[in-house]
Design brief:
8 strands; 11% strand; TIM Barrel
Length: 321
């Protein structure tokens, strides 16, 4: 695996500051039942890093006193953490909206019986990875047979009520480019997804999110191996738009890793760039209880251009268009 952080010192991303925190994004572990080529976490079946019960308790303690109303669960496959369902239930009990970043195929994994029904009962918002509506493209990026399993999972979620017009059960899909290119306009691609998935499979969904591939971990290392890292960074920098700086997710989001350490975003987490907190070299979530992070400097490097290039990219999709 090639380290990419040392290669991110050329352009100097603009300085930014945090605003009021509204979303806690928690990585429950790096284990996943897939090994996707674009994965910025380098997740896979052989990863053993998983959040422990004590750290889950710290997450809930923070939610109870911070006033944060949105819990964004990610991984790996967050559902593979044995504390996933308990965390979801307790968060919902205290009035927190929960997002599950789901790879879809986890729904038919052994030990995940009843997962779809559980998510629907808890009214968990699902943000599901489906990097294309064409089978060959998905299987090339995510593994043989993943497309068919994903379609079956989406049909099952639709049958549970996800993706209907009343928006009670939100089902978002996520698109990633196949390689070192920026995503197309989100609205036009969403229309293509709706038409193709609807006509061929009867699938409904709420929104499509387009995300840029980040030049870190597995995808970044692949770029280095192909001699394409510099060209991709130049593409991101050349497509930077200052107007996207206002909407990037790190302004209002806090990222927590499986050990409870905190970062400005999931990408900084993967690069080992901790949240800048006075008096704490590597702060944990428990260190932040009662602390206002508004105005705190955001730790930036050149990978941040992945969020401001073109139409912008965030955990909620494009920032424009």
């Amino acid at each position: 695996m090639h380290a990419t952080l040392p290669l991110m010192q050329q352009y100097g991303f603009p300085a930014m500051q945090r605003r009021q925190l509204d979303t806690l994004q928690v990585n429950l572990g790096y284990r996943c039942n897939q090994s996707c080529l674009h994965c910025h976490v380098n997740a896979g079946p052989q990863r053993n890093e998983m959040m422990a019960r004590e750290t889950v308790a710290d997450v809930l303690a923070f939610l109870e006193v911070s006033g944060v109303k949105q819990l964004d669960l990610t991984g790996g496959a967050p559902e593979l953490n044995g504390h996933f369902r308990g965390l979801v239930m307790r968060a919902r009990e205290i009035g927190v909206h929960v997002i599950d970043r789901c790879n879809l195929t986890v729904l038919d994994e052994p030990g995940q019986e009843g997962l779809g029904e559980f998510l629907a009962h808890q009214q968990v918002e699902i943000t599901a990875s489906l990097p294309c509506y064409l089978e060959d493209n998905v299987d090339r990026q995510r593994g043989a047979g993943v497309f068919k399993r994903s379609i079956a999972a989406l049909q099952r979620l639709n049958a549970l009520g996800y993706g209907k017009d009343d928006a009670r059960l939100t089902l978002n899909l996520v698109y990633n480019p196949q390689g070192a290119a920026l995503p197309p306009a989100q609205a036009g691609l969403e229309a293509d997804y709706r038409r193709d998935l609807g006509e061929r499979f009867g699938i409904r969904f709420t929104r499509l999110y387009t995300l840029a591939n980040m030049p870190i971990q597995r995808f970044g290392s692949t770029l280095v191996s192909k001699g394409a890292f510099g060209a991709y960074m130049a593409l991101l920098r050349g497509a930077h738009r200052d107007e996207n700086l206002d909407g990037v997710m790190c302004r209002n989001l806090l990222s927590v890793d499986w050990q409870g350490y905190v970062y400005d975003c999931d990408f900084n987490q993967m690069l080992g760039l901790p949240l800048a907190v006075e008096g704490k070299q590597r702060p944990q979530l428990s260190d932040l209880i009662g602390r206002d992070l508004s105005g705190n400097p955001i730790v930036v490097r050149d990978h941040c251009y992945g969020c401001t290039a073109g139409n912008g990219s965030s955990c909620g999709g494009a920032l424009r268009g």
